[in-house]
Design goal:
By secondary structure, this protein is an alpha/beta fold. It has 3 domains: about 5-25 and about 50-225 and about 230-250, Rossmann fold (3-Layer(aba) Sandwich); about 305-435, Luciferase, domain 3 (Roll); about 440-545, GMP Synthetase, Chain A, domain 3 (2-Layer Sandwich).
């Protein structure tokens, strides 16, 4: 079965049932915010609105876009990139690409112009569909995008270098194109930032996409009557693969453009939401708002809300204890995964295992796990090793990067780079990362990128970025800065310099100190973590039984 088959089935079985709802709850004057200021989720309009789409309309929109692409010469195996903020057209566009046999290539909306150009070139993208937030960045690199032959623009006032999506898609057939798709055909390329430079292109098959549907529905038992609230960005495997549970059952999903606690609770209430996937900071914010009296739970209809699950970062046990104080009847799950494993679910806690909060869980549906030493041999129970996973959602490869592929895929196993241990009951706990990735509010921050940026300052001799524990975000980026002899620099100067970075990459703490390096020149980050971190929040709470 191909993932587009689920959509076509839903359009036949539930033609008039609502598939997607888009809500923008904000009604404020324009704030002249730039793309660099975007949080994980930002509203893109000051206009308050609600839009909805049936399953039949969803399928028709996908078919029309597929046929539009075919008229522009897109063929099976070509690549089509998506550069859009979350919107109701995002998923129909994604499925329209798949229906042509082309590969969908979602792009992170925080990418700089340089990163956009790099990803488009690396993935051999022939067509791009984008929104108004990206005009300026695309203008910077337009003359260099030699392989991108077609650009479609979603919005009003189409720029001169693109065609109007809304105009041209209207004239296309609503019938599905006659393109044969097979399980092993290439389906999508996702990007995962590395620790040393530009993102890697992750190639997935149709088989992997379908496996994500099956895994998600098996874990959270979605039915046709469930309603899923989706807040994180659709370009990432996490949000989309959790939505696959809705796709598989033909149930409704709500795209919420905003993360304020009152907006989340109102959406749950108004749309009769039953399942919400949150990141740790958003759950913390909801609890804080309740305890401050900013929101009153009695004002919302929440009885139907059955499941709250969290992914993207370790979960402090104290958070779930607080959550169950206010939502005692909620099921809870933790999800672990990588873009290389088609997103969340290769390891998960399981709704029946709330007593093991702090662990990432056991192997997910259809997956295998192992913890191994540096030679790939399993370690003893309780010992630390690298977590490896095997399952139907593994990537085919890093596109056009066999060297990187061989380092992470070995004998059918994906080497995650995460150090873990397993307790006596078989539950897996993350204890460290081989890579120095900082996970702040569910967002991966790659220290090397920030370190290279900081070293541009004439007064800075060296810089190291590490994660410090934070109760709300899990970790925050801290920059340890070593100044050149005879030079002076203030924390304010560093903060002003970092305004050139996207907000999520800016260090939250500046420390002036010596940056230790070993004899081979590598920064001794374990020493820095020991000096400044002591212990991460989750690990500390688990140890203390909180």
């Amino acid at each position: 079965m191909i993932i587009t088959d689920f959509l076509e089935r839903n359009a036949k079985l539930y033609p008039d049932k609502i598939s997607l709802v888009e809500i923008n709850p904000e009604n404020e004057p324009d704030r002249a915010i730039t793309w660099r200021e975007y949080n994980l989720i930002e509203t893109t309009s000051s206009e308050k609105y609600r839009r909805e789409m049936t399953w039949k309309e969803f399928d028709v929109k996908a078919n029309r876009f597929a046929n539009l692409l075919l008229t522009r010469g897109i063929q099976k195996g070509d690549k089509v990139a998506i550069l859009l903020m979350n919107c109701i057209d995002w998923l129909p566009i994604y499925f329209g690409i798949l229906k042509t046999g082309a590969l969908a290539v979602p792009l992170n909306y925080r990418y700089t112009a340089e990163e956009i150009q790099y990803c488009l070139e690396l993935a051999d993208v022939k067509a791009l569909i984008f929104g108004p937030e990206f005009i300026g960045r695309l203008e910077q690199v337009f003359d260099h995008l030699k392989n991108v032959k077609t650009m479609f623009y979603v919005g009003d006032n189409t720029p001169t270098f693109a065609d109007s999506f809304n105009k041209y898609v209207t004239y296309c057939s609503s019938t599905a194109p006659a393109v044969e798709l097979l399980e092993d055909d290439d389906a999508a390329i996702y990007f995962s930032s590395g620790t040393t430079g530009f993102p890697k292109a992750i190639l997935h098959s149709h088989r992997a996409l379908v496996s994500a549907c099956v895994t998600e529905q098996s874990h959270h038992m979605q039915t046709h009557n469930d309603v899923f609230l989706c807040i994180p960005p659709l370009y990432h495997t996490g949000a989309k693969m959790h939505w696959f549970g809705s796709l598989m059952t033909g149930s409704k999903a709500v795209l919420l453009k905003g993360v304020k606690p009152e907006w989340i609770l109102q959406a749950v209430s108004d749309e009769k939401v039953t399942i919400v996937w949150l990141l740790v900071p958003w759950a913390q914010d909801i609890l804080d708002a309740i305890e401050r009296g900013d929101v009153c739970l009695d004002e919302y209809r929440l009885a139907q809300w059955r499941l709250m699950h969290i992914g993207a970062q370790p979960v402090p046990p104290s958070l779930i204890k607080r959550w169950l104080k206010y939502f005692p009847n909620h099921q809870y799950d933790t999800n672990y995964g990588l873009s290389e494993s088609i997103g969340p679910g290769c390891v998960h806690l399981g709704v029946e295992n709330i007593h093991k909060v702090g662990a990432i869980g056991k192997a997910g549906h259809g997956w295998e796990t192992a913890i191994v030493d540096e030679h790939g041999r399993p370690v003893a129970q309780g010992e630390v090793g690298e977590l490896i996973v095997k399952g139907p959602g593994l990537m085919k490869c890093y596109y056009k990067n066999p060297e990187a592929t061989s380092k992470i895929l070995k004998d059918g196993w994906l080497y995650t780079g995460d150090m873990a241990m397993q307790d006596e009951d078989g539950f897996i706990y993350l204890v460290d990362r081989k890579k120095d990735v900082i996970i702040s509010g569910g967002e991966n921050i790659y220290p090397v990128q920030i370190e290279d940026f900081l070293r541009q300052h004439p007064a800075i001799k060296d810089a190291a970025v590490i994660g410090l524990p934070d109760k709300r975000l899990g970790e925050i980026a801290a920059a340890i800065i070593e100044l050149k002899e005879g030079h002076a620099c203030t924390e304010q100067e560093i903060d002003e310099l970092c305004l050139e970075l996207p907000r999520y990459k800016r260090p939250r703490k500046i420390i002036f100190d010596t940056v230790p390096r070993n004899p081979t020149g590598k920064i001794e980050k374990p020493a820095l973590r020991k000096k400044y971190c002591v212990e991460r929040i989750v690990e500390k709470q688990i140890k203390n039984g909180i």
